Amino acid sequence: MGREKHRKVVLLNAVITSALVLLWIVNVASGYDWIQVQHGVDINFDWDNNLLEIKTEEHLSDGWRYLGIALDGDSLEDIYVDFNSPPQYFFRQCHTGNQVLPSPFPAGSDKIWRVSKMPGPRLVIERNDIKVIDFTFSDENCPDGNWRTYWRSDFKTIKFHDSVHEVSAWYRVAREVYKGSVKSLTLNTVGSDATINARND
Q1: What is the mean pLDDT of the chain?
Q2: Cα–Cα distance measured from residue 114 to residue 49, given in angstroms and rounded to the nearest whole number
Q3: What are the b/e assignments for 19-30, b being 16+ CB within 10 Å?
Q4: CA angle at 24 for the pair 21 and 27, rounded to the nearest 5°
Q5: pTM here?
Q6: CB-based contact 80:67 (threshold 8 Å)
């Protein structure tokens, strides 16, 4: 009886372990691999092959709240989105002042942002699967002529601005796959594509 009981315990442990491994694989494949934001830290990020998803927690800050991302070691926000009324945005090395969005952000308890840098160059920002900014860099749209070289750069890092008003809480990386003129999206495990550099400003 002792040997049979031991065999059943071993079998049960094997089943539980297999179930946990399967659950982990499903979660990763489904994109539930959120990483907690470390503000003021450079993160390796390949803009040409990935897009960025961010979960914000706006209750963490009273009053002024924003999303601020610096690129390639900059200390200032290159991508800035102000959540207050009226909502505004600013892209450094392009705009000379904040740009007011024509309509308020879509409602929703969970605020998940998707930021994609596309050929053009072009930035597309979605909130809760609704496109809120679709901006193409050009001489017509950018008073600052530095956009020509800056936004055509091959950016390799991002950094969430270190401020109590920057409300990014979690992030993950998703891979863009282009098939003709249609872009499909598959989430990728973060470990191979985004690692945190031990560097602070």
Answers
A1: 75
A2: 14
A3: eeeeeeeeeeee
A4: 150
A5: 0.70
A6: yes
